[in-house]
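Re-running protein-tyrosine-phosphatase to confirm reproducibility after the cluster update. Everything else is unchanged from the original entry.
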Amino acid sequence: MGIFDIFGRNKSKSIDQKLNLDWMHTDMHSHLIPGIDDGSKSMEQSIELIRRLEGYGLKKIITTPHIMWEFYKNTPQIILKGLKALRAELLANEIKVEINAAAEYYVDEFFFEKIKNQDQLLTVSENLILIETGFINKPAILFDTIYELELQQYKPILAHPERYYYLINDKKMMHDLLDREVYFQINLLSLTGFYSKEVKVFVEEIINENRIKLVGTDCHNSRYLDALETLPKSKYYEKLQQLDLLNKTL
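Result of re-run:
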């Protein structure tokens, strides 16, 4: 066997490597309750997506519908009703992956008032709460919101920080958030170039700093999972599996 045969075989092995997420155990960011946000549009689509996620080796899914006042006026009651229906369909289809629901809260004045009023908030686990912002500009009340959450004993998780251009362009702000011990959750898709090359470069920087606490698929539809299956080609695929992530404890 020649040296070029060895290189060719290794390259083929890399390309053919199957996506395996059993090391992750729990996917804590997705949009799988049908018809309530920009994720799954039907129960049939939800079942198909969850079947694929289970096939990657995941044992548990915590799906996180958007709560965004102007677009997705979800409530805990709406989300938990959808979860109940989804669980029934999973049982009927003999899909055994465990599924729970939290929410992905958009940081704005409406969310800030919910916190101040001590409204019921859905958490990923115990006091862990997933928050997001707009992609371009930092919300003026971002740090006030984090402070108010902490006052009420919540632990904020910032969803996909690598996608926020105000952080890409202001690394000091990123470190200010980390110094406040805000947990960072990255999207696995960011490592595939799914969003942009700039996002891919930034998420690699965050991983290199060993500041990631959680990872998620942020699955909305089959296009997301098709792209996710290219993750083993990333040079960070193995590195992800060595991170000390909280996913395994959820």
